[in-house]
Specification:
By secondary structure, the chain is an all-beta fold.
Length: about 325
């Protein structure tokens, strides 16, 4: 805030009021509000006292388009976000600044705030979930898998680009950064019994709130190397590509889909007369899809991961 900090004045020491977490506040940006000399917008500043370790959320709504920012007592900008989530590294006084989005942003607004509680113990159970806070550095968890089978691990956040790394027995290693919904991290794989280490981090080393959900999957892996038209199989890729034979009896348009929430799928198919097609994100949710006219003959389908990691996938062939 150029206008708030000009002349060496402290934003915290020149606020319009005091915010108390859990209590609702109201304000309004008018032509009489302080001016931000940088862009001509108006703002109001509120003091906020926090204790070390406090985790808060502040959300502003109303008719005025706004930006919510948090400053420390040295006028350093800590974060701008909506909603704004912050964990205090030290006790002290802070300033919450509500700014107009543009020089023409005026009107009333409401401020809602709350404290947030985490259940982050560092130990994960199946099934189970945990909510944690990432402060730039990765967060590691212990996970014990008692029964061999298929498992799904999702890391969700509205504050940053999530990334998961899972390591386990016999050199097991897999990772993901955008295989889940809304580009969140997701790992779906067959896991053997043993002790695992799950590392939750941000792709861009950001801070923010996140949740981790773990569940076992009721899925049976199809043990086959042959694909049938108008059918679907469940596959498990350990690390290297999986290959299948596909017999086309009649010429026509066929669609092959490879879907996975734990890896970036890639499909390739080779056939008679030098036929070749490949795709990595032509399907739904950036999964791979090939739609082509196939002549009668034997085709070789290769399913692999773009990042050469493993995971569970579904492979289907349909005649259009």
């Amino acid at each position: 805030m150029s206008g708030a900090s000009s002349g060496g004045a402290s934003i915290v020491g020149s606020t319009d009021g005091k915010l108390v977490i859990g209590e609702r506040s109201r304000g309004e940006l008018t032509t009489q509000s302080p001016l931000n000399f940088k862009d001509g917008s108006r703002y109001q500043a509120y003091s906020l006292s926090l204790q070390e370790g406090d985790l808060i959320e502040i959300e502003v709504d109303g008719s005025v388009e706004n930006v919510v920012s948090l400053y420390d007592d040295q006028n350093d900008l800590l974060i701008s976000a909506s909603p704004l989530r912050f964990r205090a590294d030290q006790s002290g006084d802070y300033a919450v600044v509500i700014s107009g989005l543009t020089a023409d942003s005026y009107g009333p607004f409401n401020i809602r705030s709350k404290s947030m509680e985490l259940n982050d113990t560092g130990v994960l159970t199946v099934p189970g979930s945990t909510m944690g806070w990432l402060q730039m550095e990765p967060r590691t968890y212990e996970l014990t898998v008692e029964t061999a089978g298929a498992y799904q691990i999702d890391m969700l956040s509205d504050d940053f680009d999530t990334m998961l790394v899972l390591q386990g027995p016999n050199g097991y290693h897999t990772e993901d950064d955008d295989g889940g919904m809304d580009y969140n991290a997701s790992i779906g794989d067959m896991l053997e019994p043993g002790e695992y280490t799950l590392t939750a981090t941000s792709y861009e080393q950001s801070a923010g709130l996140f949740s981790i959900e773990i569940s076992s999957l009721d899925i049976e892996i199809t043990e086959t190397d042959t694909l049938e038209v108008n059918s679907e199989i469940n596959g498990w890729m350990r690390s290297s590509p999986n290959s299948y034979t596909l017999n086309i009896a009649e010429e026509g348009v066929y669609q092959l889909d490879m879907r996975s929430t734990s890896m970036d799928s890639v499909l390739a198919i080779e056939g008679p007369d030098g036929f070749y097609a490949e795709d990595d994100d032509g399907g739904d949710n950036y999964n791979s899809r090939i739609t082509e006219t196939f002549k009668p003959g034997v085709y070789q389908v290769t399913a692999r991961s773009y990042e050469e990691n493993g995971g569970i996938y579904t492979l289907s062939v349909q005649r259009r």
